[in-house]
Specification:
The protein has 464 residues and is α+β, with helices and mostly antiparallel strands. The protein folds into two domains: 195 residues, Neurotransmitter-gated ion-channel ligand-binding domain (Acetylcholine Binding Protein, Chain: A, Distorted Sandwich); 228 residues. Helices cover 44% and strands 22% of the residues. It has nine helices and ten strands. α4 runs antiparallel to α5. The radius of gyration is 47 Å and the shape is rod-shaped.
Amino acid sequence: MSTSWLILFSAIFVWTLSSSVTGHMESKLIDDLLKRYSKYARPVRNSTDIVNIKYDLTYEMIDLDEVKNTQTLIAFELMFWTDEILVWNSTLYDGIKEIMIDSNSIWTPDMAPYNSISEVDAERGQDTIVIRSTGYANLVRLVKSKVRCEFDTHNFPFDSASCLLIIGPWVHSSLHINLTIITPEIDLFNYKNNSRWNLVTATVERRAEKYSCCPETFYSIAYKNEFVRISNDYVLSLLVPSFILSLLSIQLFMLPNDSSEKITLGILLFCAFFVILLYTNSVLPSADTTPYFVVFLMFNLIMISLITFLNALIVNLANCEFCQDVPKILRSIVFEIIAKRFRMTSIMKRNMSRHMMTPEHEFNPEHTNFYTLSVSSDKQPLSTSADDQSNDELVNAKPDLASDVAFISAFTKSYWQKAKDREAKNRFHQEWRDVGQVINRFFCVLYIPVLFIAVGVNLIQISS
């Protein structure tokens, strides 16, 4: 037992001694490397040499903000380069071939996003760099960048977005740094999909550009991401209710023009479409383009407003006592052009017969062979005409009959005048009703094709 314990204690002592020596040698190595090291100078022996940097991003998560038109990218940043100053002979330091150094202690590439709108990117913080004995440096850190995006909202809720992130040296030009891409394809192995947007394509390319400030060329790497919206929720919450309401809007054209129920239905449909429009604007990205769906909603609002206003006008004219007739130019447009195009023959014939009637076709009680009598308190007959001389004896012989004839003539004349006024009033109201019916048909022919085209296009997009 004593021999076993001795061996165990000897192993622990040797391991502890070797660990302390190794830790001491690593500290000594770092002190020796950084003794005359300047983190502000490029790590090259010759000032004309170029530092070759390999760069790459590994996507972790992307968040799109539709309201602010921004993309927030969280990714691992990988940079590899050779530091000619941090080179040592591993045999002189107990075989140490790799050390870890604080990024604030040595030179690091001044890589920064050119089009970032986030203040966090300027404060990289403290990172650890792995250095090999050959001077090969490896930096891996988690970065967060926010950039502007372009949203194409024409086909909302089947819209798309394009985001571009450009990263490159902030100060050093191609005379000092040669920037290359590690892999031509972006690593998406650890990428977590966004709940609202699908990442369709992610491309990377190396660019060489010149700026007005400097004659040199600056290298940069551009990461372009293409997204399409996950539209399942919007189909159920926006498209389907809108199409159902649009089908209900067809009922507006089927109800009579002078019915109050048509006004009530029009107001309810207007409120429903207006609520959907408000919700759509709250979830839409801020873009210069107008979505077709918003145009469809506005079209419904305008059509429902016009139909409701027209119906209220017809109801008002149907109960108006001192309104004017239909203007001649409106009558020509409605009855001679629109009604003719829509083959509304009954309205055309009624309007034609209404305005071709002349006064001689109307019944006039004065154009008769009866006596022209007046109604007076003493019931005396009026003077007779030359054609009525043969009836003088009858009049003189029966004054009571003449008085009765006068009363009958006056009553007939009054009744006919009232009938004539009532017919004119009915003709006036019927003419305005015909105008409303023709315009209602015009809106119906305009509305239904647009509705079915919009529904068909969206169904094609949903199926695809």
